[in-house]
Each structure stands twice: as structure tokens, then as C-alpha cells.
Amino acid sequence: MSYLIGWILFAVYVGGIWKFLSGYRRTNFNSGLPGRITLALLWPVLLVSNKSYRRNFQKALKGR
């Protein structure tokens, strides 16, 4: 059972990275590759702790 939860969390994490990178051009962030990778990999932490990142994450996911 714990393996299943781990795989589900991993899938959500990777899915969040993919969705964020797919819509990255809609955000206000710089287009440099190192920053893009860092923001994508840290999305769960930044989503919880940073209001500006949350707004940009929503833009990336939903195109607003």
C-alpha cells in the first residue's frame, strides 16, 4: 500500500513539473533554462510558500 502512495505522489510531482514547463511561457518569470528547471523542480515548496509563484503557477497551468 505504501508503494502505491509513493508512486501516486511521484506521478503528481512529475505531472506538476510537466504542466508547469508546458505553460512556462505564460508566466512572468525569466526564460533562462537554469531558472526554469529550478522553479519546476521546487514547485511543491514554492506553491505552498510563495504567493507570487502560486499566481504564476496558475497562469502556467490554466493559461490565465
Automatic annotation (TrEMBL):
<keyword id="KW-0472">Membrane</keyword>
<feature type="transmembrane region" description="Helical">
    <location>
        <begin position="5"/>
        <end position="21"/>
    </location>
</feature>
<protein>
    <submittedName>
        <fullName>Uncharacterized protein</fullName>
    </submittedName>
</protein>
<keyword id="KW-0812">Transmembrane</keyword>
<keyword id="KW-1133">Transmembrane helix</keyword>
